[in-house]
User: Fold this.
Amino acid sequence: MRKFLLAGAALLALGAVTPALADDAAVAAGGTAGAATGATAGFFIAGPIGAVVGGVIGAGVGSTVSDSAIEYARSHRVSSIEYDGDLQPGYRVGHGVRLHAVPTARDYSYVYVNGRPALIDNRTDVVVWVGD
Assistant:
């Protein structure tokens, strides 16, 4: 019964989120997509409560990321981390992952995962952009 209540709360949280708009769809994921991704990742990591928390965190992902931060991450390649899965905006990065500063945008750090650059919000440790 408790799992159904928590799952219902997660669905309500997802329904209440409106997508964020961005000039470039490749730069930002909508809030709804971020919430869904965060809820899915949170569920697999911490069960139903993780789904609710992950959904709320993921909903915040959807704001635009500066072009200078993206360009910096793309042009300053570092050693890549192997991850068994497809990294998406909304995923939280663990504290053991070595992040690299983006001097042109102090709010972000970056890392390469499976050969792809990813920008991380320094305040929340959440992935906000993943490149090709």
Remarks:
- Residues 79 and 112 are 7 Å apart (CA to CA).
